[in-house]
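Protocol step 6 of 9: fold each sequence in the batch and record its structure tokens directly after the sequence line. For illustration, a two-sequence batch is reproduced in full.

Sequence one:
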Amino acid sequence: MKTTPNDKSVTKFLKSVENDKRRADGQEVLKLFEEVTGMEPRMWGDSIVGFGSYHYTYASGREGDWMLTGFSPRKQSLTLYIMDGFDEYDKLLAKLGKHKLGKSCLYINKLEDVDQDVLKQLIQKSVEHMQKTNP
């Protein structure tokens, strides 16, 4: 797996984001994640800012470590990683604002498109769930 935690600089990475708006949103989301999680950010691979980690084991026996939550200011959108998925978050998502979903990815075009208080709740609930189910 090439997306592993490393000692690359989160600050340097965010400053290197080409799109001005995406770079500014990345800086704001960094503060938001730090506030909500109380954890230090760490680079995972070359383009993901992650917070915390947990250990997983698949039924096949394959195992590894992954971040509890994180984000990446990608070209197409600001991508937030909500590791437990979205099945339990219908009410929050209905109040969030403009977004798209993947399996564990929340895609936001611009940070001002969403309610940041709702976003904080979503991140917090996800981290709490992951910590409870992956001690």
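Sequence two, same batch, same settings:
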Amino acid sequence: MNDFISRELKLGCALTPITIPIGMVISYLVMSIVMWDFGAAFGIIALSIICTLGISLILWIPLWYGVGYGVLIALRFLLPLFGMDISGLFERKKAKSASGDKSNPAQPALSRDQQALLNYIKKARTKGLNDEQISRNLKINGWKANSISAAFQMVEGGI
């Protein structure tokens, strides 16, 4: 349950730039329909912001966010019912393996730190440094000995 909540909170934060404009448009349209006048609806929103020197935004922005987020969540659950595949819209793409080689599935996916370590070792070797000098430089910069030895093994293995 906690994982679900944290995932939804992350999704809500990621969608904030979209939710507020959607909420603005929807609330404006609803006010226009209720008032039967587009100009009056715009006037109420604009005057409430101008006359309060923006203090009314404390009310408007959460309202717009909530309405926009509600619309996106409704779309998230309704569109698949109509046969539309939207699985990629609301999920982050998985990071590609650092080597980018899809032909070798046995090759492990490397983190950014591991890839940076491998790149450093390869560049240092091309500059003429021996493994002891490279290892010493990495230890001075805070790398752990087991990470360094694993990186040397990966470089030797051709990764």
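Proceed to step 7 once all outputs are recorded. Observation for sequence two: The chain has two domains: 2-82, 94-159.
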